[in-house]
Write the structure tokens for this entry.
Amino acid sequence: MADEYVELVTLEVNGAEITDFNKVSENEYEVRRPVNLMNKTGFTKTTPRYGVKVEYVIPKTQTPFNFNEVENGTLTIDRGNGKRITYGGVFTTKIGEISYGEKEASQSIELGATERNET
């Protein structure tokens, strides 16, 4: 049985689509938090804080995308098997360092989101 990998990651901001990513990882998020009660511990539901880290491949022939302006974007992770994860209300939280390799230069970008849907 062959392994299946994510086929495409697309970030859409103001009608522009960016697909120059070679890596994506979803951050963990908290669903419930423990609360101390009298003589026991309970749990309360929290508001999830969604986040995604991407490795943006910097293009050689065109101007790199300006991640400082990402506001209310949509990030779609297409798993290639008919399943998709879509983040809405995407914004940039951190722009990381640039790594230069043998074949390409890439930059780590951290994104936050207000919603996450899996279809």
Notes: Strands lie at 8-13, 16-18, 21-26, 32-37, 40-45, 50-57, 73-78, 84-100, 105-113, 115-118. DSSP finds no helices and ten strands in the chain.
